[in-house]
């Protein structure tokens, strides 16, 4: 195992207002005039059509069809049928005034075995989607990997195996060749922490494995995949095109419960496992030494080869931050419920730190049980603005699930979600005011969808979906968000636009 010296991360910022001008606007309560107002989705959560046009099973197909792995045995077999309704959904985005849409490509739809040539029909679907977006003036942002590894690659060992990173680079090149003539914005990975530690540590996500060393191996190979994938994208796009490449991390705003030394040490340990295990290699070309020390009883990290961390440290044009709630931790076990916010499991997603206790936040919570605390988003934006100077930031996911029901006219009023959005977009404004170069915000999510192991019981969408009829009905929050995007100013938190009738 060899670490490399800290490497500076370079970037080519997107065109737009310089941070000083943006800060001045933010002090007036206004977003930059070219701020990206978008929404995000993921392929397995919305597309359906899991066995059409050459698509083969991903780990989420297998996992969701395994009894007991998802609420009510729900699967993404149909989801919200976006594969057949994409034109309708793009028209809806245009009506809501979105300037950008972040979607993910299904790896097993494009490269069914995880290796070899592309499936033309799969690529054609994404070509049509991109063309429809561009025709409506909506800027596409393509996520290469949002957790749906082809099952054949998992059968060969999955992310704990180094070969998977090389297969990802091959896949990235296929997408770059197909879409790079019309797509400018790419993100390599979405929330690699979840892929590694929920998929291979706690087992609450696909593929459902529960080995702490495999979780650490997976994290490393996801870092390597990011670097190799970024290189492959830049090499594969058509001549004359320059892709802007990001990665979407879900860093945790980790807070010690008290100032006690054991709580501060718990915060440091979780920060290493939640944040620095990825930001170290990707932003600085080196793993944090305390991570090695903390996990020495599990592994010697011999799977890290010379030059790997340098490969992971590719120049970023943008850095995506996904945020939902902070983590409050203390050292040592305490009486009472333990909840890290990532689902119940007999196995910890925190290698060598399963004795750290996570605490429920006080105050309002979403339907997921997550605390509502916009200050965590502010803290992360300011933190990563300092850690990656010169690299513009995007909020690539932020949103909330709330229970709601239609009124007598079939309309969906969701004042809780509006307050949530107002608070978190206000935190983005505060971060811009204080010097963070934040270029855009992607609401999670455009549509209600298959919410992973929670099935269809948790609704994040600004647009309600009737899963029986597939009818889309924008909630009040969708119209609130559309007004914010149109004006560049946040409507009041208690503003209640009339939603559509279902």
From TrEMBL:
The keyword Oxidoreductase does not apply. One of its GO terms (molecular function) is beta-glucosidase activity. Residues 1-21 are annotated as: Disordered. It is an enzyme of class 3 (hydrolase). Its EC number is 3.2.1.21. It catalyses: Hydrolysis of terminal, non-reducing beta-D-glucosyl residues with release of beta-D-glucose. Residues 1-15 have a biased composition (Low complexity). GO terms for cellular component: cytosol. Substrate binds at residues 45, 146, 190, 324, 444, 451-452. The keyword Hydrolase applies. It holds the Pfam family Glyco_hydro_1. One of its GO terms (biological process) is cellulose catabolic process. Keywords: Carbohydrate metabolism, Cellulose degradation, Glycosidase, Hydrolase, Polysaccharide degradation. The active site is at residues 191, 397. InterPro entries: GH, GH_1_N_CS, Glyco_hydro_1, Glyco_hydro_1_AS, Glyco_hydro_1_beta-glucosidase. Belongs to the glycosyl hydrolase 1 family. This is Beta-glucosidase. It comes from Streptomyces odorifer.
